[in-house]
């Protein structure tokens, strides 16, 4: 009878230790997966449309830019998704308020850039946020 009464506090202590460990791990946002995905992957096109739109809204350029080539897409999954997009973009003939049938600029107005975007995504709620953006002349 005495041995059984001593096991209860040990069992409760073990349960407490496990709960503390699980809570600590949850706070660290342990990665479930990180892998390269294709443009046809789910929600990738939405993320690319978002970064293009945000880039053009925030840009001081008179003309919009459009993605020419996708160099790499990584998807990181934790309690949300993050897309890491490496893209080539070019200046188009469409000005800020235009967005249909935009061809690429040639000649004197030609400009191509390489951009890296890190995007926090909760695509099932259509929520995106750019965490990091770096663009260089290409």
Automatic annotation (TrEMBL):
Gene3D superfamilies: 3.10.450.10. GO terms for molecular function: cysteine-type endopeptidase inhibitor activity. The keyword Nucleotide-binding does not apply. Keywords: Disulfide bond, Signal. Residues 1-27 form the signal peptide. PANTHER family: CYSTATIN-11. This is Cystatin-11.
